[in-house]
């Protein structure tokens, strides 16, 4: 900084040493001469600083001479206010995670502090990779302490974005009914159709088996089933559908007669009943077909 700028004062220090070695001078005289030497040094320093200020002031005239001046600094705060006012383009380099690249934010004017809000107002943003072919031309530091390191939370976010989300989308599309995998549902559908076709056949077979096996049982139950109840004032008896008497007490017979809804229906098939009736009708027709010859009576004669 200009306020800390110093010039060579070895000549002024030599004059002070000579004054201190002069025994002919009193202490007051020595102090006065030393103060005078320091004032001379201060005047020379002010003149030198003013010359430097004139260089900075002359920067404002660079466009008149056709020059473009580039100033590089680690902090714009170290530049004079009138220099910052003349800046036409401010490029701010921001390096994150100690990577071998930086983001360049371009502004149309100088900013002493570049915060996030200021970076959002940049007119242009570009990524600049450090030129590796120039690394060997200079030595920045004796020891490189800037090792690349990405925070763990950003690594997790990158894994979710580039692996987790694509995997989820691929899985969703795989099982999607419109765009997903079609072979597996077709196989399931075919197997279901086979099971459905087999199931009714098995059921029909199972339905026929008990009917065939229980045919004789139904006949036996039919012989024991009460189909007719005959009740009088003195007696009550029951018969089956074949007209055979069924052994039952008089009290039970009268109860069934009063509540005949407790009587069960026949379990014999209607087809068997029709077949029996057809056989009976055929027998009747056979009886009707017995040969019969109408007798012939003699005709009337006149005497």
UniProtKB/TrEMBL annotation:
UniProt-annotated stretches for the region Disordered: 278-303
Protein known as: Zonular occludens toxin
Ranges annotated as spanning the membrane: 154-174
Keywords: Membrane, Transmembrane, Transmembrane helix
Keyword Transmembrane annotated: yes
Gene3D superfamilies according to UniProt: P-loop containing nucleotide triphosphate hydrolases
Organism: Acinetobacter baumannii
Domain Zona occludens toxin N-terminal, first and last residues per copy: 34-141
